Amino acid sequence: MSSYTATVHGERFSFADLRTLLAMANERKSGDELAGIAATSERERVAAKLALADVRLGDFDAAPLVEDEVTEATRAAVGPAAALISSLTVGELRELLLTPAYAAMHAAELKDALLPEVVAAAAKVMGNLDLVVAAAPIRNVTRCRNTMGQPGVLGSRVQPNHPTDDLAAVLISVVDGLLYACGDAVIGINPATDSVERTALLLHGLADLVRTLEIPTQTCVLAHVTTQLRALQDGAPVDLLFQSLAGSEAANRAFGVDLELLREGREAVLASHRERVGDFVGEQCLYIETGQGSALSSEAHHGIDQLTMEARAQGAAKTLDPFLVNTVVGFIGPEYLADSRQITRAGLEDHFVGKVLGLPMGADVCYTNHVDADQNTNDELLALLASAGCNYVMALPAGVDTMLGYQSTSPHDVASVRRLNGLRPAPEFEAWAVERGILVNGGLPLAAVPDAGMIALAERIAAERAPQALGQR
Predict the structure, then answer these.
(1) CA angle 396-399-401, nearest 5°?
(2) Nearest Cα residue to 312 out of 347, 359, 267, 266
(3) I need a labelling partner for 467 at 20 to 30 A (CA). Which of 26, 150, 309, 404 fits?
């Protein structure tokens, strides 16, 4: 006899185990369908949601979906307050999350009381508006070279990628973002080449610009974690250590990492920070990216649905005490999220789960050119996430990444959504932007015009750094 059952319009549905129930209760995702684990009809999906709503939170602890280091780490991180709510059902947890009192309870003790799989289950029985309303009041504040995540703050990552990692082009792109008061979360480059030399060049170039302009922000080069650590050993300044993370040990091995490597990397970066006296206001120094479909893409999902695997990835990230986490929501492609409707749902789910788990959660609001989405649907998700209290989003030139070949959000979009919602940059960064004349009376000047001094500085740094690092290009 099945462990979980529900009846819808006289039709009885049975679900063999918790893994099956979670998968079939998920909103429609092309990746779950590709994996053969999705509900076969809307009626079956509704039945799964009804059955899931009656599962007690303690049942998740009693029935782990997979035995691996992610399960072990996330369970070890659950605090004693879990016992206070273990008798609640998933449906009752949903109601608790939607009460105005929950944010204070979260801050006091409940952010460490929930397994990732439990938060994923709650998301499955919530509508899109529920996900926005529940996430909005939750604030998870972190500190590195500045402070992120306070109420009223929407940060941004300036992402100045370049197809050849041309340092002058990268730094001028950074200046473009700065002139829209973007880059307070991080100035982060995806390098075209994963080499120690190129990573060190970019890190030194960014550090020169930030130091000379006295910008209170963090920098990062999103090479593989081992490449960044070798650059650090060679003397490159690493503010944030980056790594993509998935929801299973096997998937992370496909990325070439495990949690112990990331713990060791974190300690190495913190040791380097202690030698840079006065640069840092806190000890969060990791930048983690996640996204639905990553475990499935490496055939390491263990028959678990995309949302639950994403929650597990975020739970693993939490054990590393990161400064920033973001879901790259529509980047993997239509095999995992087929259209704008699925991307929007996944973006709201990922943000909600991360916030409830206690993460400093941001999003790359994005889509690839071969998915059924466009800039209008991207704008809609951006507006929803801003309403949901998202910590930060991306700021790419014109919202287009010419190196990675996908569509995202721009500095103009960040300025617009800040204006619409009365939001501001991180306080230290805002003070800097006011001093530079970038922000006036809480908003941008009438036109963000090129700053000849900043551009000249970017060109000078590139001219000084690039030849000695790489020779003639």
Answers:
(1) 65
(2) 359
(3) 404
Q: Please name the helix (run of DSSP H) or strand (run of DSSP E) that holds residue 90, with its range, or none.
A: helix 90-97
Q: Which of 176, 218, 184, 189 is nearest to 454 (CA)?
A: 176
Quick check: 455 pLDDT over 70? yes
Rounded Cα gap, residues 401 and 395, in angstroms: 10
Name, in order, each residue with C-beta under 8 angstroms of 41's C-beta and a sequence gap of 6 or more: none
pLDDT tens across 175-230, in order?
999 999 999 999 999 999 999 999 999 999 999 999 999 999 999 999 999 999 99
Residue 157, classed as helix, strand or coil, is: strand
The whole-model pTM stands at 0.96
Q: Which helix (H) or strand (E) holds 393?
A: strand 392-395
**Which single residue is written with the structure tokens 């929930």?**
114
Q: Any idea of the CA torsion for 167, 455, 428, 104, to the nearest 10 degrees?
A: -60
CB burial of residue 193 (10 Å; 0-12, 13-18, 19+): exposed
DSSP 8-state symbol, 145: S
- DSSP β-ladder status, 4-8 and 11-15: antiparallel
Of 213, 146, 217, nearest in space to 188 by CA = 217
pLDDT in the model for residue 472: 39
- Residues making up the chain, counted from first to last: 473
Task: Categorise residue 301: left if φ over 0, alpha if ψ from -120 to 50, beta otherwise.
Answer: alpha
Predicted confidence (pLDDT) per residue in 113-125, tens digit: 999 999 999 999 9
Q: Quick count: other Cβ atoms within 10 Å of Cβ 316?
A: 26
Q: What is the mean pLDDT of the chain?
A: 95
Q: What is the rounded distance in angstroms from the CA atom of residue 446 to the CA atom of residue 440?
A: 9
- CA gap 310, 357 in Å, rounded: 12
| Tokens matching residue 14 | 């049975």
> What is the number of other CB atoms lying within 10 angstroms of the CB of residue 250?
18
What backbone torsions phi and psi does residue 64 show, to the nearest 5 degrees?
-60, 140
